[in-house]
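TA notes. Do not distribute before section.
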Amino acid sequence: MIGGSIFSLSRGVAVASLGGFEWDIRFKPLEPPVNPIPLILRFLRRRSRYVMLSPLAFFNGRVRFNDEVFDMENYTGMVGFIKSDRYLHEWVWAHCSGFREDASGWFDLLIASPDRRRRVAFGAIRVDGRLVKLGGLMGWDFRGASDLGLLEYTFKHGGFNASLRVAARRGDIIVAVYEDPVEGYRFCHNSEVASSTLTISRDGHERVYSCQGRTFYEIVTPEILDQSLPLVKAIEAFPR
């Protein structure tokens, strides 16, 4: 509890009022926690903590902004975050909860640059009831393309080929500032309404899983990639 606000991951509750916003939300995890990064690597590299408490969850409640009210009923989303006293140099993160073709399916992909020299990919996919972790022990070298509004990644694993495409309109992207006490700031370019397509082929058969307007996509860098994007400023929550 912070002031009159309540945030509880264990109880699945978020109730607060701040800067013209009011929200009263409950969430129910539909999947247990998943961490695609192997335990040994989490011990070896303590820089940034990648946490996916529930890759698929139901959200119910209400959000009010001034005179506008938005109701949610069994909206599918995820509960996860990246936290640390010292962030990675940069990263790209994409997630979809619930495909149009498989409501209980999801994907999560993190592309990280731990040392500025290489980018590695970790992630997980659940489709048709099967969970597949990506990245192996130390992460796969990322051989794809990513920029402010587009991510494309093709890989092979476990006898199947897969390609992922995520697209975000620039008009749907905002920039938030993360503070790093060692290396200064990180700028998080974020869209919560991107679209994605995951294509999986195996033994000559191909299936497409889509997530239109409901894909989370962020790219975090030491510099702002587009100065014209709206910058989220800090809101004074409680007067001193």
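Switch to the second chain here.
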Amino acid sequence: METINTEKTNVFPNDTKRNLNGMKMKIGETGGGIFDLSGIKAYILNQKVLLVMVSVLLLSGTGFSQQERQYSQFMYNKLAINPAFAGALPSTTFNALYRNQWMGFEGAPTTQALSANFPFLRQRVGLGANLIRSTIGISEMWTLSGMYAYRLPLGNGYISGGMEGSLRYYGVDYNSPSLRADQNLASDNALIVENTRAIVPNVGLGVYYSDKNFYVGFSVPRILRSRIDFKNDLLISREVTHFYLMTGYSLEVAESVSLTPQLNVKYVRNSPLTIDANMMVDFGMKYNAGISYRSGGVYSSSGESIDILFGMKIVEPVFLGLAYDIQLGNLGKYSNGSIECFLRYSLPAKEDMEVQNPRFF
């Protein structure tokens, strides 16, 4: 699970503690957005789930919550993780993604993303762009980023170094009708009742190598530890650096059939290491299916989720990918799982008009 750190002063002063029983908790996140600890509002009516979420908050000690997006189909969405992937595909591509996490929870995390990947100068130079919107409860986050990568031949493939710059908007709508409390929130001076927002810049770096059957990449998409606490005196929150390592290898096991094991490792300081381990089976470079296991999770020794994936080329330039996450642990008792849909449109390659590999190495 990816996290951000919050360095607190006195998050729960005495007058706030007296009112905790009169409030319900805003849902925490595993797929997008941030906790706003200055106002713990209600989204979940089921008291068992509420108890689980409150425990996550209180036992975390430093107020952890996830900030970066979580993708089950990371193998198709590498540009959102590694800027060095810009220009790695043989033609210009446009992508769209939708993710609905923890279905069945009011205010559950959702993500919508658009991206474009442009190769230039015979794939020596790559440019990319991402626009990502995420919501969690009354919190909303927009990220606009641009990438540049330069590629050099190495062995049987290419190695590239990339950089990105981004602007991120954080907003919390305290006037949302979905907020519920047993008393007038304005009567507690410790709570924020006005809409808050912040815009923060950041930069990232990455390196990526790929050939016909293998890829590996390392990236740090957001290096700066920008403040994102809306100038709240009760809480100092900063973005925390996320480290990504991804790799995969495709092995042909029969005519027009190949197996591709893949890993996506995510590390954040003071957070458990998260590993997405995936195995895909490709049929004729037109259909593929697979399964993933994601480590981590809330109070779950068995991990966070098991993900079922399926992909196909609808027509020659259009690829569709679908994923369904089966939630493990305590949250799995109350969640209907998570769904993710990925759509890619590829322009014809200048040098090769044949079908592109749906593995997108």
